[in-house]
Amino acid sequence: MSTRLRSTLTHTALGAFVLLMLYPLLWMLVSAFKPGNLVLSEPGLVPHKPTLRNFPDGWNVLSQPFSVFFVNSLIVSVGAIVGNLFSCSLTAYALARLEFRARKTYLAITLGAVMLPIHALIIPQYIVFSRLHLVNTYVPLLLPKFLGTDAFFVFLMVQFIRTIPRDLDRAAWIDGAGPYRTFWNVVLPLMRPALATTTIFTFIWTWNDFFVPLVYLTRTGAFTVPVALNSMVSAENQSGIGMLFAMSVISLLPILAFFAFAQKHLIRGIATTGMK
253 by DSSP, 3-state: which? Predict the structure, then answer.
């Protein structure tokens, strides 16, 4: 087989794979312009009766305009980012640099937490927050972020800090800096790639998170975008499915814009944290 033929077949196969991966997104985009009663009866990619009514109708179909849910998701996402950057960086610095009793045990527990699904913790957490009368608030969504519970980001930052020469720490100690000042003035500025990676993943995962907000939020005005989308279509009535796809397309725009803006930082952060 010639090199040109092999290259043609390879690119053809890759193109077919890309189209296969993009098909659900294209179908959702096309369905946003179909009447709700034709979305499932006409599954093709060419709408026979295109309409724009799904967008204004979907924006106001619930008791609150959809902009409220965007603001709610933005509040939760920004709060989660701040919490993870604060708690995970401090935790990672302690596990990677400070010497204290049972440090390796704590690190092993952190690594074990990566493999522990949220479903194993959600019931006891819900009981605690319910007894504190914090259900239907954003405290259950944000407080764990400020306690360093996202073990994946702790592990990522630990691996990154280990690549920073310890000579920088020793030089800071000679100058009289303690562990907090060493972290703030020496280590933290060098952690920008890891912090950028944490910011990007936290925003995407929090914005798209459906399960945890569904458990804690039952008041419509407090819904995040995924929970609001779930409320637009009931099992008995599928008339809102067109509006659902229309709002889903709009809800993807912040993710696409954020990823396009931060893609360079994401690649750099992953490459410099030993996760190639």
Answer: helix
> Could you tell me the two tokens for 93?
């610095």
Using CA atoms, how far residue 8 sits from 20, 40, 231, 235, in Å, is: 18, 36, 47, 46
Angle CA 45–51–53, to nearest 5:
130
Q: How far apart are the first and last CA of the chain?
A: 33
Residue pointed to by tokens 């972290």: 183
What is the reported pLDDT for 151? 82
- Looking at domain 62-231, its CATH class is mainly alpha
Q: What is the pLDDT of residues 209-222, one digit of tens each?
A: 999 999 999 888 88
Contact assessment for residue 145 and residue 87, using Cβ atoms and an 8 Å cutoff? yes
The 10 Å Cβ neighbour count of residue 114 is 12
Decide: helix, strand or coil at residue 272. Answer: coil
In terms of Cα–Cα distance, which of 76, 74, 69 is closest to 142?
Answer: 76
The residue behind tokens 């067109």 is 242
